[in-house]
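User: Could you check the structure of this?
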Amino acid sequence: MLGEEFLSLSLDQVCSLISSDKLTVSSEEKVFEAVISWINYEKETRLEHMAKLMEHVRLPLLPRDYLVQTVEEEALIKNNNTCKDFLIEAMKYHLLPLDQRLLIKNPRTKPRTPVSLPKVSPSPVSASRRDCVLGKWPSAPASKSSLTHGCPASWLHLRPKRWSLLVPFKSAGTGAPGWLSR
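Assistant: Sure, the predicted structure tokens are below.
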């Protein structure tokens, strides 16, 4: 279950998060489930955005069984022609031999490639690499002004199941940039 912070994100924030090639997720199923949860949280006002969000879910990368048993059975997918087209695309992808699948190049067939996690000084950090499920890792800030005025990144902790804002800092010893959970 996703936290209140994720469910309260704006459409643009969710699109930015799930469209990122650098999104760190344990599986693409988590992205699909996050989209469904976000829509259902305020279904009346968010339903119109279903196709825009599903465009960023990499359905062809989901296991075939999950596509048939979960995605195809989801009412939000069944009731949206564009989403059904994305599902058909994913099913066709799975019907192709592996060598032909590798030739299909579009954003939904590109595996996510998360960046390595930032190194932090031995300051208190409330989460570790294995805790990050759905979040966007920021790159190092470019300047001191961006350290204080930049937008914080966020990530989801597995154990307490909550979102945390990450704020930039500079190591007192080395001056190296890093990110701390607050």
